[in-house]
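Design a sequence for this backbone.
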């Protein structure tokens, strides 16, 4: 079974993805090398990981213009894929591309560079007229390019956003085979989203894509503030229980909370016969949080053992 076929199978059987933070543009070569070695050591310790999901780090100013903190992540992703013998996924914010034609050219170049799985991401504000295409149009343009190379197309799901299941069905019909959610610390919105997506898929006669629930460890107040800035819904009661608890450290309490949320979504969602496949995406908050991310990754590797 080829790696691409294995990844396709994994998407239907409780996939586990690890989302490491890519090096910043300002990192020296020696620092990037040391950090890459640390990532590879962790991945080798956790053979259950199906793919590495590399995000694009980009900020926007008030006009929506991008500032890229990670640069072009494709070379870094390929290095990880080759050394770790894992499938790789990269994220791309399509809103900042200058045109539809530029997106198609980027997709073709990406495939030529050996990267076949991509998560397409929209802009951060619905009020900014971005030059790049909306995600659904981007799916239709780049999806066939990736699929001809045997790859897979993904998008982001935001459980708290009104009408999200309807958007997910439209993106699925446009070619998405999986979604990664925003970081979760509570199960309520995720359960509602998966139920609604399942129902709408059945009503639309549309095979559902895999939904990967995203989790991350927080160990201090600044982590909580950062994930909230990223858009995560972190209830105050959950933040306090993780950061101010006793007996074990905050990292371990983050793991306990993430596993609890996973189990609540898994058991709270009763799938239809052709229901929504669920999986996990473990995110690393920042480069210095590799150890807490590793603890969370190992916990889910055991929980999702095939």
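Sequence:
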């Amino acid at each position: 079974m080829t790696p691409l076929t294995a990844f396709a199978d994994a998407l239907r059987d409780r996939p586990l993805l690890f989302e490491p933070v890519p090096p910043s543009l300002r990192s020296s070569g020696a620092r990037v090398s040391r950090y890459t070695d640390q990532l590879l050591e962790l991945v080798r310790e956790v053979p259950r990981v199906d793919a590495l999901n590399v995000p694009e780090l980009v900020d926007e100013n008030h006009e929506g213009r991008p500032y890229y903190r990670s640069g072009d992540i494709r070379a870094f992703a390929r290095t990880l894929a080759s050394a770790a013998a894992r499938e790789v996924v990269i994220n791309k914010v399509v809103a900042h591309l200058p045109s539809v034609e530029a997106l198609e050219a980027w997709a073709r170049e990406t495939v030529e560079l050996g990267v076949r799985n991509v998560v397409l991401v929209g802009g951060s504000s619905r009020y900014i007229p971005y030059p790049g295409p909306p995600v659904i149009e981007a799916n239709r343009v780049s999806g066939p390019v990736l699929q001809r190379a045997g790859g897979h197309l993904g998008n982001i799901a935001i459980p708290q956003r009104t009408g999200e299941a309807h958007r997910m069905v439209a993106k699925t019909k446009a070619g998405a085979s999986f979604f990664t959610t925003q970081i979760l610390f509570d199960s309520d919105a995720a359960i509602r989203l998966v139920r609604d997506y399942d129902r709408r898929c059945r009503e639309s006669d549309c095979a559902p894509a895999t939904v990967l629930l995203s989790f991350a460890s927080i160990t201090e107040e600044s982590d909580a503030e950062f994930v909230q800035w990223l858009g995560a819904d972190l209830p105050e009661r959950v933040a306090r229980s993780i950061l101010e608890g006793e007996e074990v450290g905050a990292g371990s309490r983050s793991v306990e909370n993430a596993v609890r949320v996973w189990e609540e979504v898994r058991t709270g969602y009763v799938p239809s016969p052709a229901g929504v496949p669920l999986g996990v995406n473990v995110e690393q908050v920042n480069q210095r949080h590799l150890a807490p991310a590793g603890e969370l990754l190992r916990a889910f590797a055991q929980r999702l053992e095939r």
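Strands lie at 16-19, 51-54, 58-60, 66-68, 87-93, 117-121, 152-157, 178-183, 210-216, 278-283.
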